[in-house]
Amino acid sequence: MKPKFLVVFVTAATILALVASSPVHAATVLWDISHGVYGSYQPSGDFSDLVTLLGGNGFTVDTTANGVLVDDPAGYNVLVLCLGSAYNSPYTAAEATRIADYVGGGGGLLILGDNTGVPNSNLQPVASVFGVTLGISDVAASTGNFGPHPIFNGISQMVFGGGASLNVSGMASAIAWAEASDEIVTAAATHGNGRVIVFGDINLFGNNTLGLADNAPLAVNTFEYLAVPEPATMGLLGLGLVALMRKRK
Q1: Where do the domains of the chain lie?
Q2: Per-residue CA distances from 218 to 93, 132, 246 (Å)
Q3: Which band of pLDDT confidence, cut at 50, 70 and 90, is reported for residue 5?
Q4: pLDDT attached to residue 175
Q5: How far apart are CA 191 and CA 208, in angstroms?
Q6: Domain 26-227 carries which CATH code?
């Protein structure tokens, strides 16, 4: 008797649903401090509560003082660029290219800018790659004015410690706005297989602000979202053969 084959097709919608619902386990975060830490704006200081929160949700946070050209972020799920940890010098074109390649390959990138009185220009070479301009105008945002984005699932309100608005273009989209002025305070982008989230405040997830409103669950949502590669390319599987299962009589 000739063997018969059962052809199994999986639709793109099914794959997207499975990816979206899958929890993140044992994810890794690389926090770059190579461009100079202001005060204690690093994971061992003002973000220690965030590290503890993430640890309870399956994340390990490492830092690099050598930078992304030496410590390749490719082995990590999420890369964090925080202005408080990049206060003394700007990212170079070579670093921006390395980070763009990392995101394109499926990495997640979190960028935390801040108010207009600090050197947002240090992060701008990277933010520009993804269509975001930092430090437009100062905002004191306590807002629930969110777009339909996964990081805001179950979130009613977030509170800034005092940051600045953003501009978006190209691949970037606005996903949160200040309630009073309607200025953009959060942006999202996808690049290749990777995801990018940009907030206009470095204190949002800091020790003094993490416990306010829904900042803590927002932090978890954000890192979990960034840790999963963009599943759009997986939709191609819905066009063809996924598996052949031999079935005998």
Answers
A1: 1-22+231-249, 26-227
A2: 31, 21, 46
A3: very low
A4: 98
A5: 32
A6: 3.40.50.880
Contact 230, 190 (CB under 8 A): yes
Radius of gyration of the chain (CA): 20
Q: Which two tokens stand for residue 190?
A: 């996808």
Token pair 């977030």 is found at 158
Rounded distance between C-alpha atoms, residue 60 and residue 75, angstroms: 12
DSSP string of 77-134?
A: SEEEEEGGGS-SSPPPHHHHHHHHHHHHTT-EEEEE---TTS-GGGTHHHHGGGTEE-
The residue assigned the tokens 């052949």 is: 244
The sign of the torsion formed by the CA atoms of 157, 226, 115, 217 equals positive
- Supply the mean pLDDT for the chain: 86
Contact 176, 166 (CB under 8 A): no
Q: What was the pLDDT predicted at 17?
A: 43
The residue behind tokens 């416990």 is 211
Confidence class of residue 161 from pLDDT cuts 50, 70 and 90?
confident
Tokens linked to 42: 């690093």
54 contacts 29 by C-beta, under 8 angstroms: yes
The confidence score (pLDDT) of residue 248 equals: 27
This prediction's pTM: 0.85
Tell me the C-alpha distance between 120 and 135, whole Å: 6
Residue with tokens 């200040």: 178
Cβ of 133: how many Cβ atoms within 10 Å? 19
**Cα 102 vs. chain centroid, distance in angstroms?**
12
